[in-house]
Amino acid sequence: MARKTAGSPDYQAHLSMLQQYLQRYDEIELSHEFPDIVHVFGAWDATAHKKLEQCHRLLIPTVLSPLGQLAPWHFPKHPTPTQTLQTSAQKQATQRASALIVWGGIEKQEMEKRKWNEQIHVIPNAVTTSMISPEAMAHETMKLYQETLDAHDRLTHQRIQEKLNIFPNDDSPEKKVCHALLYLRYQYHRRNIKKQTLKELNDTLNNLEYDEDVLNDMLEQLNEEQFAARIMQVLSEDYQLTEGFMPLDLLNDKQTQRIREAINTTSNI
Question: What are the residue ranges in the chain where pLDDT is below 50?
Answer without folding.
Answer: 3-7, 9, 268-269
